[in-house]
């Protein structure tokens, strides 16, 4: 196989939410192959399997194919991490619109969602599931519970460092989106109980300390071709950098100096480099890219999902695009596309503008008409040599959750905001421009030539449809005041929405079930 495959042979029997009732699991196995909480840890390879399960929870809906998942009763394509996360980061902004019409989708793209919006609930549930899996693993692999060789103990310590990093990422996403969330860790009680709610004042230092601890332990896997898709020191540093860059949004003060420091380590010591051809970062063999720091792995045969990069390919294609021939995907769902607010910011000659425009209107006046708005062909299922991938039904294309160009632009931003080395920032900015235009025509000689507004646009051009836009707009102070098409429900948009939309509400079902939870203001 071309990459680190996810093979799951055991399950963790934990609740889908933070609440659980142990007596529900007090049953007699019906067969010798049934895995229960009492037997899940019996095998010598239990730890390996459960770590694989945790990684897979970011890619696929469950363990039995793309139509079966961990979140009961949901559309399993919508319930996947990538799709629910992407919808919250992109459909709520000026970078994407969906022609499919229902209350939940329109709530996101018109910026008038409520606490019953299913995408807000699905993302929350997915993060809670991942945290539950992580807590169970960390509880069961404490040194005091193990009787293994020194060599095996070292392996398990590496697993623990990986799981702590993934849990920190999950809590970061929860904190970033929802602000105040229920919190549990490996030391929390088991049985029927109601978790306490924690705010950003608690979560920010907790996430910071977790990440710094695993980084300083030296127990994370080394970066190599064989560990592609796994978290390493530099993945942990990217999470930490994002935490620091958004610290002021979380009322945690200025942390740009700390952000610049960890970004410098990623840039100077991580062994990553810009992919020479921009679009190669989003094709079927993007595991070959030297730029991707942390991918969410998909595979046309072994890691299938209706919600991963299939959503970003088939969801953006229509029959007139001949997607099987041109992009390697048989599906054509004619749903998501770019509004004029995104497509209009690209200059001529910018090779990052990956749009299909034939038969399309650039301006969207009727959101239900897929051919209004340019189709995005950034993600494809074609290899860099032009060959098709392993399947036309599900892509091999990985989702680049973190890549080096993002680290470059974050460093430029930190420098513009008062930290970092100006000469270095200019060099990094110019590297991105030279790849985008193929020459030095858009290079700068001083940071004074660009503003934060310019940099926000540059992040859109470089990182569109990669799940950064909502967080960027909020950090740059533009989310409430910038106008874009259909924001507020009007085709012309609005430059004023309620400040409550800086957060997503906690799902109404969880607030009703847990008396310790207080809903975010305004919902």
Brief sketch in words of this structure:
The chain has 523 residues and is mainly alpha-helical.
Your description of this structure?
This protein has 523 residues and is mainly α. Helix content is 37%, strand content 4%. The protein has helices at 46-56, 81-91, 103-109, 118-140, 150-178, 200-217, 233-245, 256-269, 309-313, 323-327, 340-343, 404-416, 422-437, 452-463, 469-475, 508-513; strands at residues 97-98, 181-182, 197-198, 292-296, 336-337, 355-356, 375-376, 399-403. The strands form four sheets. Strands 1-5 form a two-stranded antiparallel sheet.
CA-atom Rg in angstroms: 22 Å
Overall shape: globular
Question: Can you write the helix and strand succession as a string?
Answer: HHEHHHEEHHHEHHEHEEEHHHHH
Share of β-strand residues: under 5%
The CATH topology name of the domain at 1-76 and 114-203 and 212-220 and 496-523 reads Serine Threonine Protein Phosphatase 5, Tetratricopeptide repeat
Quick one: how many beta strands? 8
Distance, first to last CA: 47 Å
| Strand order in the sheet with the most strands | 1-5
Mean pLDDT: 92
């Amino acid at each position: 196989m071309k990459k680190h495959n996810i093979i799951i042979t055991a399950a963790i029997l934990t609740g889908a939410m933070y609440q659980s009732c142990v007596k529900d699991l007090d049953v007699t196995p019906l067969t010798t192959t049934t895995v229960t909480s009492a037997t899940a840890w019996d095998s010598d390879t239990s730890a390996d399997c459960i770590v694989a399960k945790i990684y897979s929870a970011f890619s696929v809906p469950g363990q039995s194919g793309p139509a079966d998942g961990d979140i009961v009763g949901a559309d399993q394509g919508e319930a996947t991490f990538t799709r629910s996360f992407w919808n919250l980061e992109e459909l709520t902004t000026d970078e994407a619109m969906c022609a499919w019409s229902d209350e939940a989708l329109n709530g996101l793209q018109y910026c008038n969602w409520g606490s019953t919006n299913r995408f807000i609930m699905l993302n929350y549930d997915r993060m809670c599931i991942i945290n539950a899996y992580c807590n169970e693993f960390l509880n069961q692999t404490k040194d005091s519970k193990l009787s293994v060789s020194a060599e095996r103990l070292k392996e398990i310590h590496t697993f623990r460092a990986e799981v702590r990093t993934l849990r920190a990422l999950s809590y970061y996403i929860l904190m970033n989106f929802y602000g105040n969330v229920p919190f549990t860790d490996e030391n929390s009680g088991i049985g029927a109980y109601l978790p306490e709610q924690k705010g950003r004042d608690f979560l920010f230092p907790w996430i910071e300390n977790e990440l710094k601890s695993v980084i300083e332990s030296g127990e994370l896997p080394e970066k190599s071709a064989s560990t592609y898709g796994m978290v390493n020191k530099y993945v942990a540093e990217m999470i930490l950098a994002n935490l620091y860059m958004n610290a002021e949004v979380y009322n945690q003060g200025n942390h740009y100096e700390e952000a610049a420091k960890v970004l410098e380590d990623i840039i100077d010591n991580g062994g990553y480099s810009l992919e020479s051809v921009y679009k190669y970062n989003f094709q079927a063999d993007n595991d070959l890219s030297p730029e991707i720091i942390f991918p969410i792995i998909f595979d046309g045969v072994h890691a299938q999902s209706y919600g991963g990069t299939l959503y970003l390919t088939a969801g953006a294609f229509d029959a007139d695009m001949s997607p099987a021939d041109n992009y390697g995907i048989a599906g054509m769902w004619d749903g998501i596309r770019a509004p004029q607010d995104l497509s209009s910011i690209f200059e001529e000659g910018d090779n990052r503008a990956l749009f299909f425009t034939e038969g399309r209107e650039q301006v969207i006046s009727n959101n239900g008409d897929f051919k209004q708005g340019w189709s995005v062909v950034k993600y494809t299922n074609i290899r860099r040599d032009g060959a098709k991938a392993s399947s036309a039904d599900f892509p091999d294309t990985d989702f680049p959750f973190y890549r080096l160009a993002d680290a470059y632009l974050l460093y430029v931003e930190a420098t513009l905001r008062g930290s970092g080395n100006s000469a270095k920032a200019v060099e990094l900015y110019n590297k991105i421009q030279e790849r985008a235009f193929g020459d030095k025509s858009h290079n700068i000689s001083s940071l004074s030539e660009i503003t934060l507004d310019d940099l926000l646009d540059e992040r859109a051009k470089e990182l569109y449809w990669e799940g950064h836009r909502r967080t960027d707009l909020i950090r740059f102070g533009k989310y409430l005041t910038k106008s874009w098409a259909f924001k507020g429900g009007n085709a012309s948009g609005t430059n004023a929405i309620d400040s409550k939309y800086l957060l997503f509400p906690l799902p109404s079902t969880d607030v009703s079930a847990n008396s310790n939870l207080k809903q975010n203001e305004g919902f």
